[in-house]
Write a structure and sequence with these properties.
320 residues, alpha/beta, Quinone Oxidoreductase, Chain A, domain 1, Rossmann fold, seven-stranded mixed sheet, 10 helices, 15 strands, 30% helix
Length: 320
């Protein structure tokens, strides 16, 4: 089998495509023949060695993939050889032609979705759903601001919030990104590189502020977010790349709150609820992952540069 291997933490170019021994599933495990693997920012932190938990070297990156069940281990009852699936956790890494996964990290892939779309589900859609409903307790009729709405998590959040009956404001830094955000269901798409977008949000909400903010870059936006919240508004921090200073009095005045989240901290019960609801959304067509770019597996280093440095227009996936 082919797999991306990291022998030393550091730059993206440390990832090398290598031949590796074929894999077999153990008890409670599923072997997936990978057709596409999703690239997430967290993958870059782990590869760089800056994530709090470091895997043993060498390792294959990646959590999200989609493909076909190749074999199942003892005790696996939910899946059989030939099933179309997507993954949210692996034992051996997703950037490979084969991946061993715990049964709990494998989910049915609806026939309505392609394998590249399936590889765009795991972290982005689960994160967006968890942020909106478990963390923010968002409800129909509320106004949601999605910062960085043209990326993988952002697109998922726009679709999920719109399907749940919320008024959705999305931001993106390019005209192409804003067009994508509107096309995926946002009622408004604003340019977060233009300082005037703050006044536009206040106009859209008639000065009352937004109910929920999903924040992808808290070190840049969080101080401004607090001034956009309505009474008892909630900010959920999904991404942050540095320190930030805020004025807590803005929270006090509106009885508002800021909470952080990592999808990896969701409980097994929460994850079960998330993916059951997502499955129905994909099956009905209410939710549809957007793949911005497909790259061959050998270009994993380029994908890691792009996911952190280039404007986001949907999900980047790797094709083995």
């Amino acid at each position: 089998m082919k797999a991306i291997r990291v022998h030393e933490f550091g730059v993206p170019e440390n990832m090398k495509l290598e031949e590796a021994p074929d894999l077999k599933p153990g008890a409670g495990q599923v072997l997936v023949k990978v057709q596409a693997a999703g690239v997430n920012p967290v993958d870059t932190y782990i590869r760089a060695g800056t994530y709090p938990v470091k895997p043993a070297l060498p390792f294959t990156p990646g959590f999200d993939a989609a493909g076909v069940v190749e074999a199942v281990g003892e005790g696996v009852r939910k899946f059989k050889k030939g099933d179309r699936v997507y993954t949210t956790a692996t034992v051996t890494g997703a950037y490979a032609s084969l991946a061993v996964c715990p049964e709990s990290g494998v989910h049915p892939l609806p026939e309505t979705l392609s394998f590249p779309q399936g590889a765009a589900i795991g972290i982005p859609y689960a994160t967006a759903w968890h942020a909106l409903f478990h963390k923010a307790q968002a409800t129909a009729g509320e106004t949601v601001l999605v910062h960085g709405a043209s990326g993988g998590v952002g697109v998922a959040a726009v679709q999920i919030a719109r399907a749940a009956g919320m008024t959705v404001i999305g931001t993106a830094g390019t005209p192409e990104g804003r067009k994508l955000v509107l096309g995926e269901g946002a009622h408004h798409a604003l340019d977060h590189r233009n300082p005037a977008y703050l006044d536009e949000i206040k106009k859209i909400t008639d000065g009352h502020g937004v109910s929920v903010i999903l924040e992808m870059l808290a070190n840049v936006n969080l101080p401004k977010d607090l001034g956009l919240l309505g009474f008892r508004g909630r900010v959920v921090v999904i991404g942050c790349r540095g320190d930030v200073e805020i004025n807590p009095r803005l929270l006090m005045a509106r009885d508002s709150s800021v909470t952080g989240m990592l999808i990896f901290n969701a409980t097994p019960e929460e994850k079960k609820k998330i993916h059951a609801d997502l499955f129905e959304g994909f099956k009905s067509g209410r939710l549809r992952p957007v793949v911005g770019r497909e790259l061959p597996l050998k270009d994993a280093a380029r994908a890691h540069h792009d996911v952190m440095e280039s404007p986001a227009h949907g999900k980047i996936v790797l094709i083995p």
